[in-house]
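Design review, sub-item: ligand-bound model
Attendees: FS, YL, KQ
YL presented the inputs for the acetylphosphate complex:
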Amino acid sequence: MSSSPAITRPLPSYRQLQLRPRDVRGTSWGLFGWDDQLGSLNHLHPDRIRSAARLITEGRRINLNLPLTAFSKPLIAHRGHIHHEVFGLNEFHRDDRIDNFFPQASTQIDSLRHFAHPDRGFYNGTDPASITAGTAPLGIQNVAEAGIAGRGVLLDVARYRQWCGRPIDQDRGEQISVADLEATAQWQNLTLEPGDIVLIRTGWIEHFVRHNVPYAGISCGLEQSGEMAAWLWDGQFSLVAADNVALEAWPATNSQLPPARAEVKGALPRSSHTGMLHRILIPLLGIYIGELWDLDELARWCQCASRYAFFLTAEPLHVRGGVGSPANALAIV
Ligand code: UVW
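KQ shared the predicted structure:
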């Protein structure tokens, strides 16, 4: 799989998705083909990538990844801390090994096998039995094979909110609204375009990592609402990533999204995943998302240059059947 096919017909809006036939209602299933593995990455047309390359004016590279070892105490309890061993076959040689590696423990991209919707299943109706280690469906290797490159745009919501006298309260798990995203873009004089790789800076990394504030398991992030899902789908963005724990606010206790039918009926116990935007974005819409992207240096450059668009690449690990991966993301300005 070397490049995405061009989309030859207009895509339905999020509102129109809700009017699709019952078995695909509210989903993008089949719109990119029933065997599609790339979802929103189909928006990375070759002409968009060529035009994004023209944004490279200085030739400066800005790393967007935290170290794999950034969190000695895991942010999500079940994701442990890596053990890195350096050894040598003799005194003139070194090799290394990493054990206990959780690919989503630091800066990451989630594959489309990360979440299923409890009532609807995995993206494109993929058989859950096919989602195991080493199998291809929806695995992160699809992204590694296609590659990510295109126009990155930064929405520095943290700085916008500071500027307008409403700084984000990092301890409250605040929900960032569509209105805030749009106001930030307008304040930055940025017009969002189809195919954009949208990076949202909430200030989480600056607060909890750079200023070393103890993290109590509460993170600001995108509001869990139909309006947010509509904004992300209708914008035809290729990928959306943020500098926080889950892209969306965490935990999802103030979600405006309804629980799954199975949860309402009691067939599935409610959990920390109830009400998550992940359940809409990944399995229903096929939108690739990223978390814990380090956007602070990029934000400084954007502010100095008064420019919020740049060339961006990301290349996840080529792990067949991988669920998530370090993002290996780079802005080139
Ligand atoms: C959460 O579940 C909080 O986020 P993710 O698994 O996508 O890292």
